């Protein structure tokens, strides 16, 4: 059973954290689903990941080789065809306790400076906790990532 790690962004955006999380997931030997809610935002992330200095092999869902993608960018509601062991969500994309239990890791990234995103993340935390999911909370409020209790 995996755990859900909530990443509370306060000083940076997802573009700074994603390459690190995705790279560590690939190093662990996991395929990754990167799930968002906005197709335009995922297209921008696709471009960013191609430009990143540490090249992360990936693709947007809907291509001919989805099953072979180490990192597959999906829109909420699309099934990940790459058999992921790690799920990274953005923009409050939905997750379930069953996904947390089935996967090695679930990472929930949310913008703490956006009241709507903060409230969505709090709701996800409450729902997952009520369903018995294992969870951790990480904050960058002090300038570096720290696990909070």
Number of domains: 1
Shape: globular
CATH C-level category: Alpha Beta
- The counted number of beta strands is 8
Mean pLDDT: 92
Q: Secondary-structure element sequence?
A: EHEHEEEHEHEE
Question: In order across it, which strands form the biggest sheet?
Answer: 3-4-2-5-6-1-7-8
CATH H-level superfamily title: DNA polymerase III subunit chi
**Describe the biggest sheet?**
8 strands, mixed
Strand content: 25-35%
- The gyration radius over C-alpha positions equals 14 Å
What can you tell me about this protein's structure?
The chain is α/β, with parallel strands linked by helices. It has one domain: DNA polymerase III subunit chi (Rossmann fold, 3-Layer(aba) Sandwich). The chain has helices at 14-27, 39-51, 97-102, 115-130; strands at residues 3-9, 32-36, 59-60, 71-75, 86-89, 105-111, 134-139, 146-148. A hairpin with a 6-residue loop joins strand 7 and strand 8. The protein is globular, with a radius of gyration of 14 Å. 32% of the residues are buried.
Please render the helix and strand layout as text:
Layout: E1 3-9, H1 14-27, E2 32-36, H2 39-51, E3 59-60, E4 71-75, E5 86-89, H3 97-102, E6 105-111, H4 115-130, E7 134-139, E8 146-148
Parallel strand pairs: 1-6, 1-7, 2-4, 2-5, 3-4, 5-6
Antiparallel strand pairs: 7-8
């Amino acid at each position: 059973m995996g755990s859900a790690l909530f990443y509370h962004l306060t000083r940076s955006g997802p573009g700074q954290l994603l390459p690190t999380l995705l790279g560590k997931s690939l190093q662990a030997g996991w395929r990754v689903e990167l799930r968002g809610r906005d197709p335009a935002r995922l297209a921008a992330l696709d471009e960013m990941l191609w430009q990143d200095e540490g090249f992360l092999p990936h693709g947007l869902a809907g291509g001919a080789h989805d099953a072979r993608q180490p990192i597959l960018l999906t829109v909420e509601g699309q099934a990940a065809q790459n058999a992921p062991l790690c799920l990274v969500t953005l923009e409050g994309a939905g997750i379930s306790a069953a996904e947390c239990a089935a996967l090695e890791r679930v990472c929930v990234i949310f913008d703490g400076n956006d009241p709507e995103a903060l409230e969505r993340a709090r709701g996800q935390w409450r729902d997952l906790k009520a369903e018995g999911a294992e969870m951790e909370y990480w904050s960058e409020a002090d300038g570096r990532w720290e696990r909070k209790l």
